[in-house]
Amino acid sequence: METGPDLQVKTVRVRTETGQNNAMHKLITLAEQPHIREKRFNFQIGDSVDVHTRILDGDKERIQIYSGVVISMRGAGMGEMFTVRRIVASEGVERTFPINSPKIADVVVKRHGVVRRAKLYFLRDRVGKKTRLTERRAKASSSDE
After folding, report:
1. Which of 4, 15, 77, 140 is spaced 20 to 30 Å from 130 by Cα?
2. Count: domains in the chain
3. Model pTM score
């Protein structure tokens, strides 16, 4: 006499169709290519930047400057974005910008910061002068004359 239920173990083989995924990736990359900016902005995480954004004011277009510290960068292709944090009226404000957006006119680096992290979310907990990052100095070139 059997005491337990009759169990059968089936192994299920999951098949990934890399050919279809690869073709879809190529198709998406091809569709995004005309919209990706040729001129790359030269900034890194920890830099103090001025982001020049185009604002439509009725019929006129003007440039508005958002200045702060780059605390994160993420994504790739058309989804590549960066986040800038600044303090306004004793309140921290973060804004995320798409790098390839036509609304971004320019990104000007004011100061290079020394960082050892990819994301600077710890700056959210800091207040006052503790939010400052030490400045990264340019390497001194030794010229023998």
Report:
1. 140
2. 1
3. 0.76
